[in-house]
Design brief:
Helix content: 25-40%
Number of domains: 1
Shape: globular
Largest sheet: 7 strands, mixed
Radius of gyration: 18 Å
Number of helices: 6
CATH class: Alpha Beta
CATH architecture: 3-Layer(aba) Sandwich
């Protein structure tokens, strides 16, 4: 990963990425030119997943904290936090990490724990987002990067990307189109954080001091 300091903050930030599988968003982050970011480790909740191999191919330290080795969520989260804290991260990134985290774990990383979700939150939290969006007949769908809070998939929103839902979409085709946007906005959110442009205020509002808002509307289907 290349590091090119921006004007906001030249201090390199340490990042730990959590995965549970293939880690496509993790791979995009590893391959992005993220200024001021250093990926300290990739930690998986499962052994023998493709994401670990991808991380090792990039020369990134990997660890496994297997949820199956722990009797409950609390003991798993405690072991996970102990492993994460070995790397003293400024930011913890969930990239396909398929575990519900306890409130104590989330509080420990408040303001430095982010996730990406395949819907335009607060709509369609949880699983099967594309199937549900198609069933409801929505015309605009997308993805969201947000700070993690104990309220699942409802943390303060950092950035979103929207795509039109096409008449012949299936869950698979919609997922593919949304995933392309995930791969665009997740590196952007991490870049903002590491460059010092993004923070979470005490009142729960996201502060982004470089935000550009063109004000254009997205209408789907388009007007004639």
């Amino acid at each position: 990963m290349k590091h090119r300091p921006e004007s906001g903050n030249t201090t390199e930030k340490s990042v730990v990425i959590l995965i549970s599988g293939r880690g496509s968003n993790m791979q995009v982050l590893l391959e992005a030119e993220l200024p001021c970011c250093r990926i300290a480790a990739v930690i998986s909740s499962k052994a023998d997943v493709p994401g670990l191999d991808i991380a090792m191919q990039h020369g990134i330290t990997t660890q496994v904290v297997a949820h199956r080795d722990h009797p409950d969520r609390e003991s798993f989260d405690a072991a996970l936090a102990a492993t994460i804290d070995l790397y003293q991260p400024d930011l913890v990134v969930l990239a396909g990490f398929m575990r519900i985290l306890t409130s104590n774990f989330v509080a420990h990383y408040q303001g430095r724990l982010i996730n990406i979700h395949p819907s335009l939150l607060p709509s369609y939290g949880g699983l099967d987002t594309h199937e549900r969006a198609l069933r409801d007949g929505v015309k605009i769908h997308g993805c969201t990067v947000h700070f993690v809070t104990p309220d699942l998939d409802h943390g303060p929103i950092i950035i979103q990307a929207a795509v039109p839902v096409l008449m012949d979409d299936t869950p698979a085709t919609l997922e593919e189109r949304v995933l392309r946007e995930e791969h665009r906005i997740y590196p952007q959110a991490v870049r903002w954080f590491c460059s010092g442009y993004l923070s979470l205020e005490a009142n729960g509002r996201v502060l982004l001091n470089r935000m550009k808002q063109p004000g254009a509307a997205l209408i789907a289907p388009g007007l004639e």
